[in-house]
Design a protein that fits this description.
It is built from 9 helices and 15 strands. The chain is α/β, with parallel strands linked by helices and 323 residues long. Bound molecules: threonylcarbamoyladenylate (TXA) and magnesium ion.
């Protein structure tokens, strides 16, 4: 069962768990977050495992200050003004990633943009002490409502995580507002803790609404799709195909593969999840026209891995639209 520690007593234990690639439930001013070091692939994979999410959708990276945010992402003047006005607070900005920022690709689902926010309270202190951003979706299992108390987190996830940091009931109670600059326009991707009107006043422009498809996690139009065709459940590899392998045994014909990456030599699904986007991108860059993917079991994180792969394998006009 998870230990529940008051925020004033939890710092050391929380840091130790995060350093070890584990998750910690933390209070923020909006809802409780299920946090992991955003640069640690196994930690980020644990988030999806604990939530039981059937898909990998991109997570918000939480920062301690604007300087950390600027090391991770490229700010335009409007987004910067919003950050200066509303941070720390319930505003999330989607921005282009700064190359080489160290963020693990599983945290952003392979996208070249990233959602950033600076939370109030314990989370901010924890991130500053860790010195790295925290990836954190709401601390609830997939399909349940977000938790606003430590007790609610423990009741839902207590059997699978080690620590819930208790900061009392959250003050805002709904998730952060998410906005993204598109060209010269600002789009509201998700309404939340800061009213759209307040953002419009600070930005000096009206917000575009709707059509972003953000309500359906993982179905973003810009979601990473490889240029190569993807063939799942491959029992054989054709000469010249790239091979995305899994486990200790190779598919027939693997010797003729143009490039090979193994998601996990030992067949560990958590390791496989953490390697998925980086390996797909590597194989894509190899120039092979097709990526053959060995069968991957569908238990645990395998469900989300197979979901991602089958959408990459779908006919190109259907990517991101599959149910
Ligand atoms: O208040 C909050 O925002 C809470 C606390 C814990 O900070 N977090 C939260 O995270 O609500 P989550 O994972 O439940 O929701 C994040 C949303 C998802 O809908 C996701 O699709 C979107 O942010 N998102 C993340 N990265 C994105 C990106 N690069 N582009 C567009 N949308 C993105
Ligand atoms: Mg959520």
């Amino acid at each position: 069962m998870a230990e529940i520690l008051a925020a004033s007593e939890a710092m050391e234990r929380a840091l130790a768990l995060l350093e070890g690639g584990d998750v910690v439930a933390i209070p923020t001013e909006t809802v409780y977050g299920l946090a992991a070091d955003a640069t640690n692939g196994v930690g980020v994979a644990r988030i999806f495992e604990v939530k039981g999410r059937p898909r990998f959708n991109p997570l918000i990276a939480h920062v301690a200050d604007l300087a950390m945010a600027e090391r991770i992402a490229l700010f335009d003047p409007v987004s910067k003004r919003l950050a200066q006005t509303f941070w720390p607070g319930p505003l999330t900005l989607v921005l282009p990633q700064r190359p080489g920022n160290g963020i693990h690709p599983l945290a952003t689902a392979g996208l070249d943009t990233i959602a950033l926010r600076m939370p109030k309270g314990f989370g901010g202190q924890l991130i500053a002490s860790l010195g790295r951003p925290l990836a954190a979706p709401s601390a609830n299992s997939s399909g349940r409502i977000s938790a606003t108390t430590a007790e609610a987190v423990a009741a839902d996830l207590g059997a699978t995580i080690k620590l819930v940091v208790d900061g009392g009931a959250t003050s805002v109670g709904v998730e952060s507002t998410i906005v993204k600059l598109e060209g010269a326009k600002l789009r509201l991707l998700r309404p939340g803790g800061i009213a759209a009107e307040e953002i419009e006043a600070a930005a000096g422009m009206k917000l575009l609404r709707g059509a972003a498809g953000i309500e359906a996690p993982g179905m973003l139009a810009s979601h990473y799709a490889p240029g190569a065709a993807v063939r799942v459940n491959a029992a054989k590899v054709a000469k010249g195909e790239a091979l995305l392998a899994f486990g200790p045994r190779r598919a027939e014909g693997w010797q003729g593969a143009a490039a090979l990456r193994n998601l996990s030599e030992t067949g560990d699904l958590r390791e496989a999840a953490s390697n998925l986007f980086a390996h797909m991108q590597d194989l894509d860059r190899s120039g092979a026209k097709t990526i053959a993917v060995e069968p991957i079991p569908s238990d645990g994180l395998g469900e989300a891995i197979n979901d991602r792969l089958s959408r990459a394998a779908a006919p190109r006009d259907k990517i991101d639209r599959a149910p």
